[in-house]
Please model this.
Amino acid sequence: MSAYHQTRGNTDSPEKMLSMLLDGAVEVLDIAPDLHDTAIDRYGEVGTWLAENGSPGWEIHSQGSFLLGTVVRPNTETGEYDIDLVCKLPLQRESTTKEELKQRVGDQLVAYRRWKQHQGHTDSPESLESRRRCWTLGYPGFHLDVLPAIPDEDHPPTGILLTDKKLHKWQHSNPLGYADWFRARSELSRALLEKRLVASVAKVPEHHIRSTLQRLIQILKWHCMLFFAADTDNRPPSILLTTLAGRAYRGEDDLFTAVRNVLAAMPRFIEKRGNQWWVPNPAHEEENFTDKWNEYPERRQAFLSWSNEINTIMDNLALSESKGLDVVYSQLIKSFEAGPVMRSFASYGTRMKAQPGQRMGATGLLSTTASGPLRKPNTFYGPHPGARS
Model:
């Protein structure tokens, strides 16, 4: 019997060790709390400007990964975080065109940036760019993608209509409804509720606390981003991974166990309706997150290749978990970025070294011969007293 198993009672279990290492690695890629708060501050002010200077009833709120708390730093040269916002105007579909809607929002954003610069504010957007679906405001470390929208009268109260990439037709969506669904799935975890209780005593903002579901989705997105680094056209969309993982999650508190169970169960939530592949939006059953699979079969094959790869990685980690940190490190470093993995291992090694009776290997990691081996959306309506002048 190895020394690792002989003293396991005084150390972390293999599952907990892997969970802590994965959590520590993906935490490095998470948006820093101060940058998160800065982003909220910036889009809060943008939302206030739009509400006060546009027509009555304009509102802005976050959507996507930022709203869900599953942001992962992009694998790009700048590493800028991409934050999606919805700017909803109280208009009926028949009263505007998609082009008019986009231009109307853009005109106000141009006016906002001009006002910031005229006032000499140092926090003015560095850039404002018109893209196919949205307007992009650039800031140090992140950019805000503002998507114009109108209410979807067929799906009240939170359904919206967005323009598609070519401004040809309206796209149905419901980001606030989706966030409610995702929050309910996250709260299956008892550990999350315990973290929130501790955080409330320490007065830590709730959005700084990550649930097991949020963390496991960040891991899936991280690996997917690296796996498709040279083939971004076929990379599965974040919303697809998030939906499948959210449906497959069963409240596991241990991160490594949750990742393995979710990966095993995800295929069960991919439907075949006639000759069409379907993964419906939990907040809008008419929206299909695998619609592109039906147009481009190679995208489904790409998803399956990624799924097989990350399942193999997790299986190999499960087999190596009893062999010591050095072996686990060599497995993880093959599939994930070196920087985050190294920082997580260094932190874990320091923690274990500080415990009585622990001995470090030559690599600085625990060897096999040692004595042992993480919300409600911010929505801005009308005049906002916290706006800066």
In short: The chain has a mean pLDDT of 83. Residues 297-320 form the longest helix (24 residues). The longest strand covers residues 142-151. The chain has 14 helices and twelve strands.
